[in-house]
Amino acid sequence: MRTAYDVGKVRDAERVQMARLPEGTLMGRAAAGLAATCARLLGRVYGSRVVLLVGSGDNGGDALYAGERLARRGARVEAVLAGSRTHEGGLAALRAAGGRVSDASALARADLVIDGLVGIGGKGALREPYAGLARETRHVRATVVAVDVPSGVDAGTGQVEGEAVRADVTVTFGAHKTGLLVDPGAAHAGVVELVDIGLDLPDPDVVALQDEDVADLLPRPAPESDKYRRGVVGIAAGSHLFTGAAVLAVGGAVRGGAGMVRYLGPEEPIGLVRARWPEAVTTIDDPAKVGRVQAWVVGPGLGTGEESHRIAAALLKSDVPALIDADGITLASRDRALLRRTAPTLITPHAGELSRLLGVPRERIEARRLEHARRAAEELGVTVLLKGSTTLIAEVDRPVRVNPTGTPWLATGGTGDVLSGLAGALLAGGLSCYDAASAAAYLHGLAARRAATGAPAGLPYGESPISAEDVIARLPEAFRSLIP
Ligand SMILES: NC(=O)C1=CN([C@@H]2O[C@H](COP(=O)(O)OP(=O)(O)OC[C@H]3O[C@@H](n4cnc5c(N)ncnc54)[C@H](O)[C@@H]3O)[C@@H](O)[C@H]2O)[C@@H](O)CC1
Ligand SMILES: Nc1ncnc2c1ncn2[C@@H]1O[C@H](COP(=O)(O)OP(=O)(O)O)[C@@H](O)[C@H]1O
Ligand SMILES: [K+]
């Protein structure tokens, strides 16, 4: 499991260590780790050209001391001093090692640029001249290494207001910062490397599950299992207008390991579901006629009219866990009573749907995904899976889980319906909303990557667009890659 921390906790842990250790120890460790990564990226340090972008705080100090180490190994190191002041000890050390001060024209000559403008002390949009320097790093041919966080990215939230450095590699100290795992910050960070500087940290604020964590969560049939014990999932999705949502959600559930899938909907989607997924049991329109299920999925393509509301309300009264998605979320944003349930509830909105639920503009949610996923979990009293470029899973009093799998190729119609069916199957299999959502997002992302790259069947020579059906088709492989 990868863990990440809000800035306040990192600062507290640093304070404890700084009081214990001789002055400069932590910065020394940080700079040593940073220089080691830079040396590895350069391959040959001797004769290489390194440019340091140096801000006025300790982030600039780290860059200067790393520059000193590279200069001692024969690199030509030039520092661009952007702040009103400069870390004195760091600058003296760089000069003593043969490094010199230069201006922004040095960027064009660089093999490697070290971004030490601001770190966790950054506040708001980058001001000039920092912003201009950050912009210039976009056009350099050099490898860009960010110190602790890419300057311009809010380390606590991943928010980017205005200009920000886009790094190839971010070398972060002590702990991953939450803003490095959440977009848009994550997209600016490139590959993140952690340098251990010996901090003692409490429980994390954000975690990213890895293969082995998800493998541990997944339900597996035991020798004495039967279809009921494995979990029956009910799916209320699709309408005369949106027949595809029914087929895709049922597909996600069938391939997601449900013991049985019960589909409830109108005649037209029923015909299509039967043709594509003969293993599903179908019921026309009447919620009272559906047999017992262990979890409900309510909403993809359901429609938002009175009849849809009646069906959603009847199903959500049940005492089993329920996943509410798409039109189900739109219905709930008009009638919050749908969310007041006796059993656990998982909602799976994209930013637009969450915007309707919270009454917050979509762009604001996209810019501050972490904050809004947490807020929705708290205000609505449900588990929230917020979809989009980084998928987040939030529940009150638990660290937010960031899904590390997936691909932008997933941004295509219908993939959300597959996710709903898959998560519903895992809920029916006995996972909590928090675990079902996390495992489903992980598998969905793995399947999508495999679909886009063609791996592992052929050589991974590129990527292609994918369809929602491709994601369903690759789910068995995604499971197999986790459950050997
Ligand atoms: N505290 C510690 O124990 C350690 C800190 N380290 C480094 O120290 C960094 C934090 O240092 P600081 O607290 O000095 O803070 P920073 O160096 O991150 O930033 C503070 C400086 O940037 C300026 N600034 C803030 N926002 C700005 C904006 N939007 N535009 C332009 N200028 C802006 C401030 O005026 C201030 O001078 C960490 O990110 C890390 O790199 C490491 O050396 C490891 C140990
Ligand atoms: N830029 C992106 N990068 C990675 N995944 C994305 C991106 N945009 C969307 N996704 C994923 O694609 C899926 C789309 O779901 P959704 O928006 O509900 O679409 P639909 O309603 O058409 O099924 C979600 O799993 C979401 O997290
Ligand atoms: K930085």
UniProtKB/TrEMBL annotation:
CDD domains: YXKO-related
Keywords: ATP-binding, Isomerase, Lyase, Metal-binding, Multifunctional enzyme, NAD, NADP, Nucleotide-binding, Potassium
Keyword NAD attributed: yes
Binding-site residues, K(+): 59, 115, 151
Residue ranges annotated for the YjeF N-terminal domain, each copy included: 10-205
Protein known as: Bifunctional NAD(P)H-hydrate repair enzyme
Keyword Protein biosynthesis attached: no
GO biological process: metabolite repair; nicotinamide nucleotide metabolic process
Requisite cofactors: K(+); Mg(2+)
Residue ranges annotated for the YjeF C-terminal domain, each copy included: 210-482
Gene: nnrD
Binding residues annotated for (6S)-NADPHX, in chain numbering: 58-62, 119-125, 130, 148, 245, 301, 350, 417
PANTHER family: ATP-DEPENDENT (S)-NAD(P)H-HYDRATE DEHYDRATASE, ATP-DEPENDENT (S)-NAD(P)H-HYDRATE DEHYDRATASE FAMILY MEMBER
Note on cofactor: Binds 1 potassium ion per subunit.
Domain of life: Bacteria
The organism of origin for this protein: Bailinhaonella thermotolerans
Record family assignment: Belongs to the NnrD/CARKD family.
Reactions mediated catalytically: (6R)-NADHX = (6S)-NADHX; (6R)-NADPHX = (6S)-NADPHX; (6S)-NADHX + ADP = AMP + phosphate + NADH + H(+); (6S)-NADPHX + ADP = AMP + phosphate + NADPH + H(+)
MF term (GO), any: ATP binding
Subunit structure: Homotetramer.
Residues that coordinate or bind AMP: 387-391, 416
Role played: Catalyzes the dehydration of the S-form of NAD(P)HX at the expense of ADP, which is converted to AMP. Together with NAD(P)HX epimerase, which catalyzes the epimerization of the S- and R-forms, the enzyme allows the repair of both epimers of NAD(P)HX, a damaged form of NAD(P)H that is a result of enzymatic or heat-dependent hydration. Catalyzes the epimerization of the S- and R-forms of NAD(P)HX, a damaged form of NAD(P)H that is a result of enzymatic or heat-dependent hydration. This is a prerequisite for the S-specific NAD(P)H-hydrate dehydratase to allow the repair of both epimers of NAD(P)HX.
Enzyme Commission code: 4.2.1.136, 5.1.99.6
NCBIfam families on file: yjeF_cterm (TIGR00196), yjeF_nterm (TIGR00197)
